[in-house]
Amino acid sequence: MFGLGNNGATRHLYFIRLKLFCSTTTTANAEPNLLSEFLVNSLGFSTEKAISASSKVTCLKPRNNHKPELVVNYFKQIGLDNAQIKMLVSPAPRLLFADVDKTLKPKIKVFQELGFSGPHLVRVLSRSGAFLRTGLNTGIKPSIEYLRKLLGTDGYVAKAITRTPGLLSYPLQRVMSPNILFLQNLGCSTLDIRKLILRNPRIFVQKTEWLEDIVQRVEKDFCISRDSRMFFYGVEMLSSLSKSNLEMKLEIFRSFGWSESDIITMVQRLPLCLTTSEVKLRNILKFYMEELGYESSYIASHPTLLMFSFEKRVLPRNKILELLKEKQLIKKVPCFYTVIKCSESEFLENYVLPLRDEMPEVYDFYIKGRN
């Protein structure tokens, strides 16, 4: 009844060896396979990746309060699953030998004091990069104080970290200050810089030469001047796309007959339209140009058309508009752009709710499509 089968005996032997591994002084080179076995058995690493990860640990001296299973159990207690834990420990398996009470909990408390909790905390922590390997008093706390001075409130600090979870892994004052100074020298206001940090903090942890190149491309390639209200959006757009990815998106527009002038007009009006996925761009351009017959010049001058959800907004509202035209239920049919850009409440009030009794199928079609 209490006997062990082959698998049970193997597991029992493994945990005996792990206990010895975690309670005696040793080195990773002496017993490299023990850490590998732990990564495989406890976190689901492949053997190859476990060996690769364990090879990064040298001069390891586990103590009673520095045990891999304690670290894994703590991560699971705060809500991380195996995949998220693997994401944290793969680049730095020494993290498994951190002191939970003295090292991990104080750092995670920083996130909690900023308002992160539950799934939100788990999501940010699992994507936080080297945060848990950054010094608390030498790196994390000074960086938070620097962000507070820049952004004003803990709420804004939390928003910036949510945008870029690995933000606190950087020595922020050292890496952000040159980029902020560069933008200030261009004439950018403190408010504009704060808005850009909140939208895309990653821009400010890059090398200043990189940011200088982005600014030059915004001005040269898309003719967006520094005093344009779209300038910062142009910087944000280019900073989020590789040159190859940007070129692929521009080629989509060209494949639909767009001229370079059309493309520049569109980007000058709404740079972030180029952050739309390639699949969506193809689908929505095909719909607007081949099914509805819009010219590229019209779309370029109304680029918000490219930003609306194709499935949840464009298609359902177009269907409603077609039904209204077919049944002649409104005296003056608005243009498609007017119908698409109005708010959801306006659309319901003006085009759907008034027809609930006279044409219930219109109402049912739209309401069901939204759910």
From TrEMBL:
Official protein name in the record: Uncharacterized protein LOC107832301 isoform X3
Keywords recorded for this protein, A-Z: Transcription, Transcription regulation, Transcription termination, Transit peptide
Keyword Signal recorded: no
InterPro entries with a match to the protein in the record: MTERF, MTERF_sf
Gene3D superfamilies in alphabetical order: Transcription termination factor 3, mitochondrial (1.25.70.10)
GO aspect biological process, one term: chloroplast organization
Gene Ontology CC, one term: chloroplast
Source species of the chain: Nicotiana tabacum
GO function terms (MF aspect): nucleic acid binding
Keyword Transport: no
Family, similarity comment: Belongs to the mTERF family.
Originating gene: LOC107832301
